[in-house]
Amino acid sequence: MTSAETARAESLRRISELEYILIGDLRDLLESPIDEQNLRWISAVLDALLETLPKQFELKQKAGFSQEILDVHPNWECHVTSLAVEHEQMCDRLRQLRRELPNAVRTESLAKTLRMELKAWMQAFIAWNRRESRLLQTAVNLEVGCGD
Q1: C-alpha to C-alpha distance for 5 and 3, rounded to whole angstroms
Q2: Cα 70 vs. chain centroid, distance in angstroms?
Q3: CB atoms within 10 A of CB 125
Q4: Please, are residues 8 and 62 in contact by the beta-carbon 8 Å criterion?
Q5: Are residues 137 and 72 in contact, defined by beta-carbon separation less than 8 angstroms?
Q6: Could you list the mean pLDDT of each consecutive 10-residue stretch along the chain, which spans 148 residues?
């Protein structure tokens, strides 16, 4: 592994750890009532996620995530592309939720709706991460037999 690849792998590890911490922090914050102070913390976490998620995805691409799958299974391009599109859609949705955040302190119903939508986003993001990992694991471990 070259020094550039090592540095990229280390950056990816650090940013993945940060993502994990931020998702945990968001989960904890959503368990508390949404007041002015909590709103500031949620805003900070969402801002950090919105900065981190695109960087992490870009690092994965530079590290050859997609190419590693396509080298083994070139016909899986639709799966790789689907994951990329879904990632962008999730980032867009998180940006939208971040823009709606200031309205959450107006009424309890808005706060409750935003809390539910952020929890749903987190569940979708965790599921996306699992699909991404499963696709890579399947690509690396799948052995296609030739039959008898």
Answers
A1: 5
A2: 21
A3: 20
A4: yes
A5: no
A6: 81 92 95 88 96 92 82 90 95 96 84 93 95 88 62
